[in-house]
Amino acid sequence: MGKKQFTAPAGCLCQELQHILHVELERGNAVSEPPIRTDWPEPGSVLASLAHDFKTRKNELPKGVVYSICNDPHYGWHGEYFCEIHKHLLVAGAPRPGQPTWQPG
Prior knowledge:
Layout: E1 6-7, H1 15-26, E2 31-37, E3 46-50, E4 65-70, E5 79-83, E6 89-92, E7 102-104
Parallel strand pairs: 3-6
Antiparallel strand pairs: 1-2, 2-3, 4-5, 4-7, 5-6
């Protein structure tokens, strides 16, 4: 039996990633998957997904947030912002076949 997933309560995405989400929506991105507590990649982790590539620049990131590329089609996104403080993940974009599978941003 797989892990049970449930929709997380409103505002459950950590403050750091909530800030990025707000900026992304202002810049025209759209939520494709709202925040869900997945307990992945860490227990208590929350995951949210945006439809298009990130528009937030790395120099705009809150402290504790790191960017990396995850181009693995098994995951289904291209870029990810990970909050090292709260272990939450905000992902965006679609995989790009033929490009490296993973690399720090």
